[in-house]
Batch of 2 targets.
Target 1
Amino acid sequence: MDTTTLAPSSATSHHPRVTAARTTDAVKVYGRDGTEVRALDGVDVSIPAGRFTAIMGPSGSGKSTLMHCLAGLDTLTSGTVNIGEVELGSLSDAELTRLRRERIGFVFQAFNLLPMLTAKENITLPMDLAGRKPDKEWMQTVIDTVGLADRLKHRPSELSGGQQQRVAVARALANKPELIFADEPTGNLDSQTGAEILGFMRFAVDRYAQTVVMVTHDPVAAAYADEVLFLADGRIVDSMATPTANQVLDRMKAFGA
Amino acid sequence: MWRITWKGMWSHKRRLLGTTMAVVLGVAFLSASLTTGNTMTAGFDQLFEEANSGTDVVVRSANQIGSGDTSLRGTIDAAVADDVAAVEGVASVAPLIEGSARIVGRDGTPVGGEGPPTTGSNWLGDSPLNPWALADGRAPQDVDPSEPYEVVIDRASADVGNLTVGDHTFVQTPAPVEVVIVGLATFGGADSLGPTTYTAFTDDAATALVARPGQVSTIRVAATDGVSPSELSDRIDSALPPGAESITGSELSDEMLADIEGDFLGMFKTILLAFSGIALVVAAFSINNTFSILIAQRSRESALLRALGASRRQVLASVVAEALVIGAVASAVGLAVGYGLAVGLKVMMDANGLDLGFDGVVMNTSTVVASIVVGIGATLLASVIPAVRASRIAPLAALRDSAVDTTGTSRSRLIAGVVITAVGIATTITATAGDNALVQAGLGALATLVGAVVLGPVAARPAAAVLGLLPQAVRGQTGRLARRNAMRDPRRTASSASALMVGTAVVALFTTFGASIKATIEQTVDQDFGGDLVVVTDDFSGSGMSPAVAAEVADLPEVARAAGMANAVMLADGATIDPSVANAADLDALLDLDVSRGSVDDVVAGHIAVSEEYATAHDLSVGSTIEAEFADGATTELTVSAVYGNTMNVGDMLMTPDDWTPHADQVGDVVVLIDLADGVSETDGAAAVAAVTERNGAPEPQTRSEYIDSIGSEVDQMLMFVYAMLALAVLIALMGIANTLSLSIHERTRELGLLRAIGQTRREVRSTVRWESVIVAIFGTLGGIGLGGFLGWGLMRALAAQEGFGTFALPVTSLAVVLVLAAMAGVVAAWRPSKRAGQLDILDAIATD
């Protein structure tokens, strides 16, 4: 199918309400007495499995912190984070690392790839690190989906920004993770290329029931999600199901963002 | 602009630390070497001054043969002392008899003999010309011939030998003589005159033991008040018979200092300087690498400066200024460290029998200036190319995203490297003939080394690719990442490896040399060592061992024949030569002299044997005569009676003991070769010989294999010294690798963060860095071993061509050990960088700025 023509979800398919990840009274405090900043101030969220969730909020709202804590990249000051049944606070650094490489996929805003590895090697990196053989059929599906078949031998420096980000998406998908976290994945891309990347993620959710959590400040990007969570001053202040770009924009304006 | 330079440096101060350390260590080594050399010179100077203190003029024989180590000065007639005493202005005279006497300690082990003099002399009593003072007991007196001689010895030897007043012991002159210690002497407050030992007899005893009747070594003269030493020396000269001369005490001190400078001390200094040179070259490579990386990392800054209007010259000057500051600071620190090193070294030498009785160390202005100039110079030199490269960065580079140094391996580098290396190899290989073979091979070696350094970046990628297969196979993805990291910037990999390559090339060269020397000795001993047993002297200060050893061993029923060999010094037709002294017929039977003309049986008193080369060079044949002149001034005519081919053990001339002994004050053999009688086992024969050597205070006999082993262990000891000297250079190289890794990790912060985020554990991150370090270390070491081995082979071949001996041997085991050590060192070098990489905060690393 022509993936680039994927439209934002109409959110028709509803999976059973299984929770992929959740936080309970999550608090994250940076700094010390006097200068402390409460980046998360008692956040309770649950990320439904098989859905595309966007987290929005102005700069400093704590949206990146929330994502980092959900993904096991950062630890909470108090409260709990669960990925499936696992409580992350009880895990050691090595266990967290293993959890990330086995159950989580990442797409960052920039610098997603290792420059000395080829596109193909970058895609299989998490599995290589875990010492697992990639599922060939699935690999082929992923590569076809993102349209990289003729770029596999190239190094990142030989790829355009959009192509690099497609490799990053492919890497996140290749491992069949329970969750994919995307941190401003289109932040460095032009709108056309950005739409492609968002389309891939939407497709993965619709077609393969992939769970995706995306942090963004772009209402157009958020419109690809099934649900948008709005964060301000470290708290969830609102949510919106089946958003459109305009609705999201209006809501953001209401927060004065 | 200067403010920018300064601020830039300050913000990079941690990264500059690595660069600074290389310079600090190099300069420290250099300044410690210079300081130690100067301290020893000052120590010897003080020693000789003290030895000659109170002596205004010294009268001695004008006859000296040879120079340096093998020089020999004649003696003078004791009666000259009366003539000197009669000269106006002479307050007192003291005829001094000096030879060698080795004191045997309480446990039977001789004291001293490692090189510093073991002086045996006459006691000058209360004379102001005696620099020694009695600290205990009394002066020696003449005794009945049946009684042991009375001696005064220095307090230091008494301590070492656990002897005291009243003890009976022996001194070797070189025949063992029984003595009783009646007094202990100190030298100007010190326990001895530096590392020398001192035994004083009565005049008669000294004459009997270490001189010839009626002869004295020197006459020491004190002037009356108001008469200057030089004036007195002039007056004395006119009263002296021919063959005698006088010099002032201070002239004698200067002469003694010049002698030791030209000999042992000069060599010592040269060796230290050579090794500090190697350390500095390695340091320069290391600095060059660090600068290159720092500048590559800052290329955006430089480009921004250019875009904002800084001229090329300003950017260049900024980098050069940075090098200047680093060089200056590091040199100053290095100088301080070097001072500390020199002090430590002095303490060590003092504790190991090299105490010259000199306090403190001498760091003079020239050492300070030389160290600073060399330190700054090396830093500047190493930074020139990176600086020029920095100045060439286009202003546009500021706008580009990538700050990584991507300039790889140019075609011109490949061509230049291949040409230089090929020329070097060809020059080394063709150095197989002529008197300049060694020089040619040396030049070829240098060119090969330069070529290898130029080729480094070309070889780095394929080499890292191959070497990286191992970690990739063993450690999977972690190993693969290490391999890719080592391959990604060949110039950087090569740069940090080449410092190590230069260091290990020298290590491998010496290792190969050592093995080759051993192989050469083994071969020549096999060829030329005809006997079953050998006794080798352990006395390197005096004249060797008593001639009684050879004589008594020859008389043993277990022994078929034995020949002692001594060294002589004389002038043959006006030219200095040091012939071997032995019974030619016995010697020939023991080691086959390969006589081509004449017969060894004819080499009796008044006759000599010479080598073929010597015969050809001096147009001699059987029946020709040479005019021999000895240190005592005597001349005699010697007839050539045999011409031989085997020069390995005897050199160019062989003379009889009969012709040599009358001209020598003390005669001793340096080696005794022994053939056992038929049917006598080596064990029984050795036991019988050992009884003789023990009686004569000589070392135990050795079998052929023991002899080879003992020489081998001497070679090993020399190698150990060389390794210790090279350790610093290798350390600098390893620090260079560690530094490069640190800089690379700083550069790869975001990569490492990404890897950690998507699932590489801290342990795996550390492992990746360690393996990269190991790949670089092995790459450098393999290059060094290959280079060192090849150069060792080339130089040994040239040596064989030029000197006629030398067998190449490749010490595979030793070199394998070097390689394993290098791999381990790679792990050690990666310790800190890998730790830092592992501790990297993921969020910091992936944060988008």
Target 2
Amino acid sequence: MENIVLPTKNTWCPGCGNFGVQKAITNVISEIGKEKTVLISGVGCHGKMADYLNVNSFYSLHGRAIASGQGVKMGNEELNVICSVGDGDAYEEGMAHLIHAAKRDSDITVVVHNNRVFALTINQATSTSPKGFISNTTPQGKTEEAINPLKIMLAVGAGFVARGYVGKIDHLSRVIKQGVEYKGFSFIEVLQPCVAWHNTFADYNERVYELEKEFLPLQEAEEKAKEWDYNNMESKIAVGVFYKK
Amino acid sequence: MMEGDIMKDFQIIIGGEAGEGSKKAGMIIANFFNAYGFSVFIHEDYQSLIKGGHNFSSISVSERKVDGIRKEVDFVLALNEDTIFKHKDKIKKEEGVLIYDKDCTNKDFSAEGFSVVKVPLMDIVNKVEGISLMKNTALVSSFAKIIGLKWEVLEKVFEKELKVELEKNIEVAKTAFQEVETVKEVEVIGEKRGELTSGNEAVALGAIDAGLDCFFAYPMTPATGILSFFVNYKEVKTFQPENEISVANMVLGASYTGKRTMTGTSGGGFALMTETVSLSAQAEVPLVIALSQRMGPASGVPTYQGQGDLLFALNAGHGDMMRFVVAPGDADDAYYLTGEALNIAWKYQLPSIVILDKEISENTYTFKKEKQVKKKEAVLAENNISYNRYDGEDISPMAFPGGEAVVKVTGYEHDKKGVAVEDAEAIKKMQEKRVRKYEKLKQEVERMEAVKVTGSGSVAVVFWGSTKGVALEVVKDLDMRAVQVLIMEPFSKKQMEEALSGVEKIISVETNATGQLSKVLQCNGFKVDEEILKYDGRPFTVDELREKLKDL
């Protein structure tokens, strides 16, 4: 296997969940081949992956990677487009792009590094931070409910909706690969703890479990997506392919 | 004008409610005169609504080149009463003719001093069992007969312009043609001079000839016509995303793969794109935008004229960045300069803006394609494993993803590979590479026509955009010097100095309230002595500009 990691100095914190996503994505790119693959990045800690990998990349603006990626796909349909984005990136600044890409079934893969916090700007709440989350901009605790991105993706008609966890790299690699191979829009949210501001490793290790079925019918997927609402600290958290059209 | 006189220069207004088809009727009339060898120009005036209101087309017809409207009108063709009252005072006394739908009013206009022809439009339509929308066909056909046009010419124009219910429309036209008498005489004066083309269509044609592959846009008046054109043009991949932010980023995505891609928008949409204008400059991925101005600020007056976005276009985008900006003045300019904008964007890998205005975009010109656009190849690299996207001293040769080369583009400051850097030396190096690239572009602009001079008087009238048509006509009559700025950025001081050599007085003419071109000139060391500004959403008429220039 060709080493596709560049000698660039890596500035992620030691133990950062981004290493796991990068490992899974490099596994997938090594399998599908890098010549016909383009990695599109947003802006945030996750985005640095574009600087770390020796693959075609378009390091876009905060929130805009999904729009850039769709342009790349329209420019050259032979390319595998993997948009590697963050939660602040895709669920805040660029939510419209995510929803419309899913709705129009653009043939791209979106991998969301969801650490549920703005990390690079030093600890501010995002829309997937749990209610009550204490951060630099929510010192009294976040008052809003968290959004559930899987429910949103299923509601707008995404054809491939999955969740992975950086604590399960082989499983995550398989899920991303299925997403890339899926013909149409594929959405993979990755639970990715931030060791600096939102370290959820211990919690996820306890609650995360793999779905047994290869994928679920829509109604069942919708029920399964409700299992965990991103606020509570009790329910189990499923990973795997929730839905595939 | 007496019966039998031969007409060579005249102004027509045709109007009605939105939805009555006055614009289409105007286009048909313009086609008659185009076939007869005249120079034809149409100014469209319509409101931001779907039905009702008052829409009209002002059509200038002349044996000499004409690209502007006049205050006094030879013919008013009215589909409704409102049109008569809004325009009857402009009709020339004695020579002028009012032609209107007999049923649209019970008022009498016979004592107004001009000739009056009442045509029973609905009766004509009913005779052949047509629908009420065909009243416009009856009106233009009556008009054609009144001025002595030949039926064969009419028939050909109808065949070209009417896609729906052609046979029925021809029946209506024939009936109307028999209904009225000829009172004036228009004769063929020569060969057809060009194709009747709107500025928006000319932009599209220029882009196609410069090798356009994709067009992405979100609708916004007055640039929507470009999107409508491409939707029906299969060779260019056309797409309408969710907003202008998405549009601009999709354009960059497609450009990154080597596909020549552009967009069209107006001020508000361009405002949303500015973040990506900056990304284009930093990532060195071409971004071509046709920016058609309308009356602002904010939503402003959506369907009316304004030139308020020049300084915005020249400054949009955060960071210390370079761009190319051209300002066409009519359909021929729009065609050629859009082609240049694409070629330059791809050669120099930067944002390239074609700044238009509502008048250029939506008016119809007799388009001659004076200069043919040709696709100029970008500087390309061999696609192999040793490729670095930002190699070189100024222009970095491009390769596109899909081959052996790893192609990395980025919005961060970067090294030659395209990997983010933060150390002082690396930052300085890349900034200087882009500055050298810009210096090269400046040199290329000197080889292009950046400033166009007509005439040699000691008073210079400086203008940009759609004011061109009226300015050229008036300046010629007054023996002044017309100076049109075609390339706004990089601004050619040298060409402007030459253009103004021996000039004693500089007058700028613009359709905005703050004199934005004057400011650009001032920044470049040229002092404007007088400003003639118009900011009521309407273009200058020939007469109006003539009076203002005479008064100074």
